[in-house]
Amino acid sequence: MYEERRQELIDMAISLLVLTLGFSIALSGDMARGLNWSRVLSLMPYVAFVLLFAFIGHELAHREVAKRLGYFAMYKADYYLLPLAIIFPLLFGFVFAAPGSVVVSPYRLYRQGDEKRDMFFIAAAGPLANIAFAILGLALLTATQSYFWHFFAYINAWLALFNLLPLPPLDGNKVIRSNPVMWVLMFAIAAVLVWRLW
């Protein structure tokens, strides 16, 4: 168990670092004129802070809900897709990120429960965390008028909306199959947040 948790921590740290670099490259400016590495490095601390909530918060929400429902769950990086988070910004100027996911045991380790209900709660936890962070960022933006909080809110809102698309293996596919009404509500909230922050 210790080795598995240690590997999970390593996977999360590597995923966060790669995503931070990818987003910083994408935000650094006009790729046609060449990459400004000093700007990339200056952006990385801010991007890392945002992704600590938007990415790590999202994945930990999945994991903790699964654990509370009696499942074994842990984050695993996808080392085949993870490099795309850097390759796409370098080539095309935007981030395509599929760094990994929380893998949930198909068998409940303890307690009784309803599989369909459990699937909804586990899948919905990540996007709901992003929605909550986006609302927090929007409140801080209103209070401070700081571009940083706009970026914080927008990234969280966009990740919530993207993850709620009803396509496998995204969270939205699981949410809509287990509770279509809640999927519509969550998707609408995420879409309004993205529209408000665009």
Briefly characterize the structure:
With about 200 residues, the chain is mainly α. Helices cover about 70% and strands about 5% of the residues.
Report on this model:
- This protein folds into two domains: 1-113, no CATH class; 114-198, no CATH class.
- Strands 1-2 form a two-stranded antiparallel sheet.
- The chain has seven helices and two strands, in the order H-H-E-H-E-H-H-H-H.
- It starts with a helix and ends with a helix.
- It has helices at 2-27, 37-68, 84-92, 115-144, 147-163, 171-178, 180-197; strands at residues 73-77, 100-104.
- The radius of gyration is 17 Å and the shape is globular.
- The chain is mainly α and 198 residues long.
- Helix 4 (115-144) packs antiparallel against helix 5 (147-163).
- The chain is 71% helix and 5% strand.
- Residues 144-178 form the Peptidase M50 domain.
- The chain crosses the membrane at residues 9-28, 40-58, 79-99, 119-141, 148-168, 180-197.
- It is a multi-pass membrane protein.
- Pfam families: Peptidase_M50.
- Its main location: membrane.
Task: Write the topology of this structure.
Layout: H1 2-27, H2 37-68, E1 73-77, H3 84-92, E2 100-104, H4 115-144, H5 147-163, H6 171-178, H7 180-197
Antiparallel strand pairs: 1-2
Helix pairs in contact: 1-2, 1-3, 2-4, 2-5, 4-5, 4-6, 4-7, 5-7, 6-7
